[in-house]
Amino acid sequence: MKILMIHNSGNVGKSLITREVFYQNFTSENKMVLEIESRNASSSSFNINVVRIDFDKPTALQDLTQYGIIYDDYILDVGSSEIKDFLQAIEQSREILDEFDIIIIPTIKDQKIIPDTKKTMMIMRLLGHEKKVQVLFNRITNPSTIGEDFESLFSWAKKEKFSLSPSLYLSDYTESTNDLIKHKRLSSEVLKDTTDYRALAIRYHQEGDTLKSRKASNALLTQRIAKSLHTDAVTLFEKFKTIVETST
């Protein structure tokens, strides 16, 4: 699966979605993340295969084309600060977008973000790839109110004949994933740790070591959050996989 992750605004969760929903769920070993980013959050410090493409360099299009050929599964994560340069560059070769199976536009419940979500969708339409566009509703606290929370986007999409699915969402992990991001770990990596931190927290507490007990409790919390995030990410990945398979 080849994915374009793009949005005109920053801080919509593209990097987390790239890592958790897609990269770690690709079954092929021949997988990678391509980043066009210079300012915002990056996946380059995580234990994953990441290459940054600099669109200030004349070889950017050649690099993008080469990686697109070599790798079976990859995500091109376009930073909001680089989207203009990216779009200008691909004007020379719009067929580059043909390589992608799906175009993901993450959005969040923020009135400053919604207009840019619409703008990004329209850009993809102008480039002739609106049928590949899927909006991912991120940082959702209550799935049953997605239609209400994003009412202006749904109304606009209906008018412009874009298809939106409220089932394509990821819960709000903004604060709870701090430890994962701090230690540069994927949820799947955390789940490989079978240490019984609950038992350790109890033991250290009984021994009077408050610091170690607290540390073990925090590790247990990280395990629980990683399990929840991983479960949600797998479910969402399977939905996108089905979309791609049924559209080809």
Count of DSSP H/I helices: 10
Q: Compute the gyration radius: what is it?
A: 20 Å
Instruction: State the end-to-end CA separation.
Output: 12 Å
Mean pLDDT: 90
Query: Strand tally, please?
Result: 7
* Percent range of helical residues: 40-55%
Q: Looking across the biggest beta sheet, what order are the strands in?
A: 3-2-4-1-5-6-7
Oligomer: single chain
The CATH superfamily name of the domain at 2-173 is P-loop containing nucleotide triphosphate hydrolases
Class from secondary-structure proportions: alpha/beta
SSE order: EHEEHEHEHEHHEHHHH
Q: What spatial form do the alpha-carbon principal axes imply?
A: globular
Give the CATH architecture of the domain at 2-173: 3-Layer(aba) Sandwich
User: In CATH's first tier, which class of the domain at 2-173 applies?
Assistant: Alpha Beta
Query: Beta-sheet strand percentage?
Result: 5-15%
Spell out the blueprint of helices and strands.
Elements: E1 2-6, H1 14-22, E2 31-36, E3 50-52, H2 60-70, E4 73-78, H3 83-90, E5 102-107, H4 114-126, E6 133-140, H5 146-149, H6 151-160, E7 169-171, H7 178-182, H8 187-191, H9 197-206, H10 210-247
Parallel strand pairs: 1-4, 1-5, 2-3, 2-4, 5-6, 6-7
In words, what does this structure look like?
With 248 residues, the chain is of the alpha/beta class. It has a domain at 2-173: Rossmann fold. It is 46% helix and 15% strand. It is built from 10 helices and 7 strands. Strands 3-2-4-1-5-6-7 form a 7-stranded parallel β-sheet, sandwiched between helices. α4 packs parallel to α6 and α9 (197-206) runs antiparallel to α10 (210-247). The radius of gyration is 20 Å and the shape is globular.
